[in-house]
Amino acid sequence: MDTSLTPAPDTAADTPEAASPAPVGRRRRTVLLLLALTAVTSATALVLGLLSWAPDPPPEPARSLTVTEGERLAAVRVTNLRDVRAGVRVTAGTGADRIELVGWVDWSRSLLYLDVGGPGAGAERGLLQKGGPVLVIRPDPAAVPTPAAPPLVPPADRWRLHRLAPGAHLAPVLDLLIDLAADRSDPIQTAPSSGTRWVARETVPAGPLDVIQAPLPTSTQPAANTASGTPSAATAAPDGPTRYWLDQDARLHKLVTLLPDAGPVTMIFNRADRPTLRPVDALGGRPGLPRALTDAEQRRLDRLPTRLRAQGGATVTLTAPLGTDTNLRGTGWLSWTARTAYLAVADLGVPDRRTLLRRDTAGLARADLPTAAAGGGTAEAPARPPLPPPAVTWRVTRPGGDDLSLLVDTAVAAGSVGHRGAAVRLREDVAAGRTVDVIESGPADARLRYWIDRDGSLRRLELRTDAGAWAHLDLHPAVVPRLAANPRSSAPRSSAPRPGAR
Q1: Is the backbone of residue 154 left (phi > 0), alpha (psi -120 to 50) or beta?
Q2: What are phi and psi for residue 281, nearest 5 degrees?
């Protein structure tokens, strides 16, 4: 067969490149076009941006205050008092002396409740409350260095009166926190001669804040603080300029200053953190609304002696912050029928000693013994006194000559002598799981509080001490041992008994 006329197969037409050359070219042209458009758009945006760019304006220079700014600065302390409370975080000092405080300030009651930490906390590490001139701490040497917000319901135990060491840089910080509130403005702060200046403006989540340089307010507090032993911080000029961060409503959000004995101090306030604070028992406990007694409350008070004699007696627990160097704890018995009491009392500052206190109808007798001979226990929780009372030298003391004997005398006398004088119902509270009415009476320098439950039983007796704190005896009805009469001493009676001299 002649195959020369048969066409040869076209193998090139079977390959993909040969089958569709036009679509491939179109895709390439499309990609190139898109890239060119993107480049043109970017270049145009860059040119427009360069043409419209302007540098940030320089910060506004410091200047004198406007009238409105001066009014807001002058109103800061009044605003703090009106707002009542705020959360606070404070750093004071530097390096190994730095202290850190976290907690709250209640300007309406001159009350601080703080957790104290930082490398310079020292003996004050732990919880702190300050009410007026009275400072109490709950030391916790093992606490972590960084403080945290204290528990809203403060622990009931281990609080003691405390005196800050002379020159302690915590004292001016605490005083300044309280002095940041007043019932009237301070025109000295905004006087032209005071050097007050507007410095800057900052924006925070709470809104815009004006930063103002001004002196600290002139203190309206006494020149000396009996609790800290140092002058009020605001009475002394700071070592450097003070700056306030204020919002448009005259609320203080931050303060930076330099204080004598404290160094640089930064205070940051959380104006939304405003819980109701509860003072601890040594500061009087929860505030109340004094009112006249109802007929039922007056009857329970009038019938208290009869009720106590019917009960016979009680075990007692003593907590008595009588002075910055005298914090007493005690336990024992009290008999209303025999009008006697017998307690073992420990001073936290002298943990290896005990004072045995015996009270009968003739007066008080005391003996100081080593802890083991007086029942044992710890200084914070001493054991009950030994029975029978040890045959040691007892010293007779003048009845009612100090806060401790006055508190014990009043508790014993409650079973035989009716209440005298005007009384007010302060508040409702709870003692030993029972609802009580807290009834207050007595002169201003020796206020007494009776905690009486709805059955007419006395659950606690409180006494305001010379130190301004509250000492108390907790009473639990019980059968008490029969106590022998106190020994009679031929030695002169002590006129300055210890512990707890008034």
Answers
A1: beta
A2: -60, -35
Nearest to 99 by CA among 55, 163, 164, 152: 164
Sheet holding 207-213, edge to edge: 160-161, 134-139, 126-131, 111-117, 99-106, 85-92, 263-270, 252-259, 243-246, 207-213, 197-204
Rg (CA), the chain: 37
Task: Give the model confidence (pLDDT) of 48-59 as tens digits.
Answer: 655 555 555 556
d(CA 112, CA 81): 14
Rounded Cα–Cα distance for residues 231 and 223 (Å) = 5
Residue closest to 73 by CA, chosen among 204, 250, 226, 291: 250
Q: At what angle do helices 304-311 and 295-302 cross, to 10 degrees?
A: 50
Q: What share of the chain is helix, strand, coil (3-state, %, to 5)?
A: 25, 35, 40
Length reported for the chain: 502
| Contact yes or no for 268/252 (Cβ under 8 A) | no
Predicted TM-score (pTM) of the model is 0.81
DSSP class of residue 382?
Answer: B
Q: Residue type at 298?
A: Q
Q: Tens of pLDDT along 63-80?
A: 889 999 999 999 999 999
